[in-house]
Amino acid sequence: MRPDRQIGVSPVQRVHRGPRGRLVVLLVFLVGGALFYRDVIHPQVRQFWEAEVVPRLARETPASARRAPSPAEAADAGRVPPVVHREELIEALQRPPPAVTEVPVRLSGGFRPGGFRIAAVSHPLVLATEPPRAWRLPATAGRAAYGALVLQGGRQYHVLLAGAAGVYRLYVDRNRNGDLTDDGAPLANEGTGRFAASLRLPLQEVTGRPLEGTYDLWFSLDERRDDRLQVYSRTQLSGEVTLGGRSYPAVVADNVVLDGDYTNDGIAIDLDDDGRFKGPREVLAPGAALELSGVAYRFELGW
Fold first, then answer.
1. pLDDT per residue over 80-119, tens digit each?
2. In the chain, where the domains are located
């Protein structure tokens, strides 16, 4: 016969036997105590605090020690919320948005390449461990990883990152012929990390437009991964746009789509002429409209 089936053993005594029974009893006491504190003790403590303690502290605190309200607090205390009539609210909601004025911006007519004016956006370039079969590769030492930077028009610049003992070199197929042995010396590390270097290509070649200068790309090896480079453009185009008869400084950067196009990346406009471009009002995404003096402007970038 099992011990808990013995004559004279009550159900409560059986529950107390074993760790599971003790845990059930403990949970019952905890839940009951929490409910008793919430419904009985806490209301009495709060009532005593508000009725006895708070008035006594207010009487015993000298006037010199009481903090005077700040001017902002005093103003907020006496401020009356503005009243908006229902008719005015309905009229404002039903009022159509201002008509959008399309502003053509021709980058070949007055925009010039230069350095940073707004923050650049970094894009990942994933590397593979096996090269395409058609590539002709240089003799390298250490680990090698392969990728391709694709710019507008399908222009592909194959890259090979090779390194050993923390010393990396980046080979670039500058002439895009699938041969990485006839493009000059590889890029060496110019940064303070594991690897970072600048690749300069003719701006006219990248954009397909008669623009002088270079298209400067900055490559850096991801500090957390060996199979990915981070790439961004350091060449931005600066010029002006005219809105409402007034000219404003403007910048176009190859940020949103890293392809050397510049017409699909939005535009930044220095509206207050302070020499800076502050988002989101002054840094516009592609297709975004800018409202200025009750007029909405949308910019159509082209060459």
1. 555 656 666 667 666 666 689 999 999 988 999 999 999 9
2. 16-60, 100-113+238-302, 121-233
pLDDT at 83: 60
Residue 294's pLDDT is 86
pLDDT digits (tens, 9 = 90+) for 200-218: 999 999 999 989 999 999 9
Q: State the Cα–Cα distance between residues 160 and 230, nearest whole angstrom.
A: 14
The pLDDT, as a whole number, for residue 197 is 97
Q: What's the whole-model pTM score?
A: 0.66
What pairs with residue 136 in β-bridges?
179
Helical (H) or strand (E) element with 130? none
Higher-confidence position of 26 and 137: 137
Q: DSSP assignment of the chain, as one string?
A: --GGGSTT--HHHHHTSSHHHHHHHHHHHHHHHHHHIIIIIHHHHHHHIIIIIHHHHHHHS-GGGSPPPPHHHHHHHH--PPP--HHHHHHHHHSPPPPEEEEEEETTTT-EEES-SS----EEEE-BSS--TT-B-----SEEEEEEEEEGGGEEEEEEEEEETTEEEEEE-TT-SSBTTSS-SPEEP-SSSS-EEEEEEEHHHHHSS---SEEEEEEEE-SS-SSEEEEEE--EEEEEEEETTEEEEEEEES-SS-SS--TTS-EEE-TT-SS---TTTSEEPTT-EEEETTEEEEEEEE-
Q: How far apart are CA 120 and CA 36, in angstroms?
A: 61
Q: Of 227, 76, 250, give the one whose Cα is nearest residue 163.
A: 227
Average pLDDT, the chain: 82
